[in-house]
Structure formats: C-alpha cells, structure tokens
C-alpha cells in the first residue's frame, strides 16, 4: 500500500483505504455531481495518484456504486424506523413504497441509484438475484409478522421482486403530471395491497 499523499495520514489497512476513497468520492459528488466526478478528482481529493485509487477500484463507477450502496444501507434503517408501529403487511408495504418514492429522488446519494445505468439498483440491476435477495432481507426487517400473515421466505422473495420492479418503473418513469402522495397511496392500496390481504392458501393434505 502506498504511503504518499493521503493528507499525511496513510491508511492502516486496505479496508480503510477503500473507505476513504468512497468518502472522498462522496464529497466530490456533493460538489460536482455524479456525471462530472472523475477518478482524477477523487485522487486529487485524497492527495494520491490515480494509480493508488486503481489499486482498490477498477472504475469510477465502481466507487460511485459503493457510495450509493452505503447510502442505501442508511436509508433502509430510516425506512424501518419510519414503519415502526405498522404491523399490517399490506399497509407496511404500501407505506414503505410511498416513503421510497418520496425520499429517493430528493437525496443526492440515494439518487445515485437512479444514475448508474443498467447496473444500478433501480436499473436492470433491480432484477438480479442479489438485489432481490437484499430486498427480501429488507422486508424481513419490517415490523410485520410475515409468518403469521402466511408469507414465507419464497413469498418474500417474490414480493421483493415485484416491489423492485414497481419502484424501478415509478422512479425512472414518473407520471406527468406527477401523482401526489395521496394518489400514489390510493393506487398502491387498490392494486398491490389486495395480494397481501388475502388469507393464506390452505396447506395441501
């Protein structure tokens, strides 16, 4: 690991170096926007060479994706906190989607998820197995007794896929004129909630 630059404080490990690169990239994005942030900007922010950054990340898009991923983790914590006290499965899913649609486009680091093209969490990447599995784990954190509602692990995976597909469409192709929250909530309650309000199918004998 190189010990030059880094503001006179070289990282103690590769993990620390990667995190400092991610943090520097986030600062550059805050100043310049994602489309104008280059790997040279990140290297200059850290006081290191481009080659030093390349030792840890192959492309600027890989660093930007990590900035977005870390922002998403913090976002999920806020989402789960927002849903506390909402134990009904249908209500939790509808309210969670409304929260996502309201929050993601307005926050710079979350909106990165919309700007990374086909690899992003809300591009073609929304339907990868890893992203859907992440969505299912996120649903498990909701304040809902899914088992009591008859929603098993396989069902949560399917629900996560449908949610990701719907969010992708609604975020990337918003209505014109835009729907307000009341309209979105009514739309989701009418067409999505019934699938979660159904009684569990009887077990085969």
TrEMBL record:
<dbReference type="InterPro" id="IPR009057">
    <property type="entry name" value="Homeodomain-like_sf"/>
</dbReference>
<feature type="domain" description="HTH tetR-type">
    <location>
        <begin position="15"/>
        <end position="75"/>
    </location>
</feature>
<keyword id="KW-0238">DNA-binding</keyword>
<protein>
    <submittedName>
        <fullName>TetR/AcrR family transcriptional regulator</fullName>
    </submittedName>
</protein>
<keyword id="KW-0805">Transcription regulation</keyword>
<dbReference type="InterPro" id="IPR050109">
    <property type="entry name" value="HTH-type_TetR-like_transc_reg"/>
</dbReference>
<feature type="DNA-binding region" description="H-T-H motif">
    <location>
        <begin position="38"/>
        <end position="57"/>
    </location>
</feature>
<dbReference type="Pfam" id="PF00440">
    <property type="entry name" value="TetR_N"/>
</dbReference>
<dbReference type="InterPro" id="IPR001647">
    <property type="entry name" value="HTH_TetR"/>
</dbReference>
<keyword id="KW-0804">Transcription</keyword>
């Amino acid at each position: 690991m190189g010990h030059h630059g880094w503001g006179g404080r070289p990282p103690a490990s590769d993990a620390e170096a990667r995190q400092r690169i991610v943090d520097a990239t986030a600062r550059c994005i805050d100043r310049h926007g994602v489309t104008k942030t280059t790997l040279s900007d990140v290297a200059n922010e850290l006081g290191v060479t481009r080659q030093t950054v390349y030792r840890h990340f192959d492309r600027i898009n890989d660093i930007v994706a990590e900035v977005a991923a870390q922002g998403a983790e913090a976002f999920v914590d806020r989402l789960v906190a927002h849903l506390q006290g909402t134990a009904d499965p249908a209500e939790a899913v509808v309210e969670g989607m409304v929260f996502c649609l309201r929050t993601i486009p307005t926050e710079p680091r979350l909106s990165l998820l919309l700007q990374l093209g086909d690899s992003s969490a809300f591009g073609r990447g929304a339907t990868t197995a890893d992203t859907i599995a992440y969505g299912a784990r996120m649903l498990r954190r909701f304040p809902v007794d899914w088992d009591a509602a008859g929603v098993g692990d396989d069902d949560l995976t399917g629900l996560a896929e449908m949610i990701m597909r719907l969010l992708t469409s609604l975020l990337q192709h918003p209505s014109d004129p835009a729907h307000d929250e009341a309209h979105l909530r009514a739309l989701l309650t009418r067409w999505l909630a019934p699938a979660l309000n159904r009684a569990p199918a009887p077990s085969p004998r």
